[in-house]
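Following up on my earlier thread - several people asked me to post the actual chain instead of describing it. Fair enough. Here it is, all 319 residues.
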Amino acid sequence: MIQQESMEFALQPELGAKSLCNQNRLQGKIASSGPRWKSGESLRSDSGALAGVLQWLATGGSNARVRFQAAIEAGVIKLMSVGRGTRRGRERVAVLTADIIHSSQYTGSDRRRVDRVLRESFEEMERSFPGSIHTPMAFRVTAGDEFQCVIKQVRNAFRMLTYFRAMAAISGLRPMLRFRASLGVGEIVLVKKKNPYEEDGSAFIRAREGLDQTGSSARWTKLITGSAELDRPIDVVLSLLDSMQQRWTLPQWEAIRWALLGLKREDIAKRLRVSVEGKRRRKPPTHQSVTKRLSAAGWQRFEQAAEYLSDCLEQSLDR
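Reply from S.P.:
Thanks for posting it. Predicted structure:
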């Protein structure tokens, strides 16, 4: 009879090139190379394939930890599912690096208001996506129109960026506050810093690379995961979404802000009615007017594309 067990391999520095399995105490030497394991493959404890699994585990670093379900019968190990832990000090995040478009338009008191609006917009984004932020936003000292933050809920990174833009757009600042932004997905190797500009890793390098690319084009957004297979289609989708966002009006941004959080048309209308109380020149929004705003903005197509990007971001964590 096949015995189902929850097993764990842990590669620890003090054990050198050995791997221990809790309960079964399987041990094996890590080969310098070996076949790549695939889900559902059966492995014998004395086979070269097991050495391949241990080598795969080793790619996570000396402190890698992997949990999986295994079926064991007559010394045969069948791995059923895998969940990887993060490398110590090398978790995967999304870094958002952005700069204000036409920042020279804002001078004096307007410039101070821009900084305040961005900070308030970031705080609202953080409240709306609880537990999503790894390192709070900070401005770059040598380039006052640039800012950065680190997102740990990678799947939500593009939605969070769009929400951030919506909050900035509806802030009341004129000209409407807009910014280019790049999302870089990868590792963070210097953690627990209060300022993202003091941190480092592949995610930061990719975010910087993407932002540099937007500076020489009409693009607003870049997203780089480091996987060409993902990055090419992502960039095509983003080029279309950029052209949509660049045409959105203030009323459309107001509706999209709430649509990004999944609110229904009736609920969005209620939120917008509260926001225009006391503003005599503006007609209180209705369910129908919210629908018109979102339809004119192409919200349904945008939402589908945003969900696709979320799926790509999630896939990038396994590459």
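Residues 1-51, 53-89 have pLDDT under 50 and may be disordered. That should answer part of your original question.
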